[in-house]
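Researcher: Let's walk through a ligand-bound prediction step by step. First, I give you the protein sequence. Second, the SMILES string for coenzyme A. Third, you return the three-dimensional complex as structure tokens. Ready?
Model: Ready.
Researcher: Here are steps one and two:
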Amino acid sequence: MAIDVPALAARQRVAPVDDESARRLAASGLELRLVTTDEERDAWSQSVARGFLDTERNAEQLDAVRERGAHRRPVGVYDTAAPDPHAPVGSVASWVTELTVPGGSTLPTLAISAVTVAATHHRRGIARALVEGELRTAASLGVPLASLTVSESQLYGRYGFGAAVPVTSWRIDNRRAGWLGPDPSGRVDFVSRERFRELAPALHERVRTSVVGEVPVPAGQWDTFAGTRPDAKDAAKTRAVQYTDAAGEVRGLLLYSVEENLVDYARSTATVSLLLAEDREAHAALWRFVLGLDLIGEVRASELAVDEPLRWMIADQRAAHVEVVDHHYVRILDVAAALEARRYGAPGVLALDVTDPLGITGGRWLLRVDDDGRGVVERWPDGDAAPAGATSVTIGVTELAIAYLGGVSLGTLAAAGRVSTSDAARASRVLGWHAAPRLSFRY
Ligand SMILES: CC(C)(COP(=O)(O)OP(=O)(O)OC[C@H]1O[C@@H](n2cnc3c(N)ncnc32)[C@H](O)[C@@H]1OP(=O)(O)O)[C@@H](O)C(=O)NCCC(=O)NCCS
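Model: Step three, the predicted complex:
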């Protein structure tokens, strides 16, 4: 049965904070609570800005944050003995959105951001209480996944998050790259940032449901990308471009900025901040445009898929320096719902024994995948032997999340000693997917 995501999101926004985390924090004289009033939101935003090494927010910025953060559930931790008891010493924000899984279905996910703890209060378990609390609350409401993009990679494995969407970061010597890709028949034009802002949400909505790993861009974040708010940083540096196909439809959008090279002006740098392409022609046209920019010696881009086709569209592969980076982390909150939602790479029966150190999900499950890649999940009672021919997989909830979107093979995880299985090749084929996942932005 399809889940009503807006209704679930509305319930999550106002759900009470988690009892267990509230009790744990109260034992240290700290209060965990939802942030509700505008005044509280502003104080919370100031704490978040400080936590992320940003400047103190002015009134205009606070207005902007309030507006673009309207979809979020902000939670704070307060120290009532502090000189300013209204300024939270810990923060987290979350909202229910949806993640595209292999096969094209989308599944509700708890997106988490703004995890900060004041330097005066860090390393006392506040972040743990915040993250675990929000995960438990979401799981109790029936949200099957959680996800986040991270500033530090070593923080979230302990809560069951796995780096399910590795992406690539590129530096391309565009003078050397050359072009072997197609020569699209549409046109490329500069447009205003306002025009980009107008077109991008609908285009991203069309693109994201066909790309495993994508989530919707929160509405207010488009202004941040496009620099279309008065408080936007360096907005004037951002250039917007559209690709229109031969039939007159806009199929692609690009945002990039340029950094001048003061020593050698003709070797300046162009950084692509977002390239949205609905089809192959739009993708080729926008990359061809960027690689052909005058006065540019290096093109940079990040959050591209591990199997990004650009490598095969340039004539000299050594012109591109490509680095793989962990990017989108996923946490499974309901193993059965997660496994049932996706399609699989090959038929087979997996007998999965999943452990979850936080006790949110896990257990023993049989996943039967038919010839069309459809999976059925049933409980595998304790003490029962695995059915004949089944492949056994003993796996932690973190490792299951890493393999869940098909971006990392189970065989690789077994070779790394993180999973134990009776048949790594079979398990890899079943859980594998033909395209690498991607998430084109950070949230
Ligand atoms: C990262 C941050 C939120 C941690 O908050 P905290 O309250 O000190 O964290 P906790 O005390 O709850 O620690 C939780 C666990 O993470 C570990 N940890 C915390 N900060 C860490 C860091 N910077 N690097 C590595 N491990 C860290 C702790 O050792 C602890 O491990 P354990 O539970 O397995 O013993 C805080 O340092 C911070 O605000 N940093 C700046 C903003 C930021 O990077 N936020 C993360 C956004 S993705």
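Researcher: And what stands out?
Model: The chain is about 30% helix and 30% strand. Residues 168-328 form a domain with the Aminopeptidase fold (CATH 3.40.630.30).
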